[in-house]
Amino acid sequence: MTSTAAALSASDLTHRIGYTGPADEIGRLTTTFDAMLDRIAAALPANGVSQPMPPTSSGHRWLL
Question: What is the per-residue pLDDT for 52?
Fold first, then answer.
């Protein structure tokens, strides 16, 4: 999971964990993480241009 998260970037959200082990806590976590990445990738514009997201509670802005 750590290597997948480290491999992600604003311009490449194609990496997935692809866990094939048992459906225990780790299995459910990795499946959920992959599904979250799918939703994020689907929400981004197809042309790759992203809009700034609103500030977080800490005041930082995250750009995808």
Answer: 56
Residue 10 DSSP symbol = T
Alpha carbon 35 to chain centroid distance?
Answer: 8
- At residue 57, what are phi and psi to the nearest 5 degrees? -65, -20
- Do residues 20 and 34 touch, judged by C-beta distance below 8 A? no
pLDDT in tens, 3-56: 887 888 777 888 899 999 999 999 999 999 999 989 988 887 765 555 555 555
Tell me the torsion sign for CA atoms 4, 48, 54, 36: negative
Structure tokens at 9: 């970037």
Return the ∠ at Cα 24 (arms to 20 and 25), rounded to 5°.
110
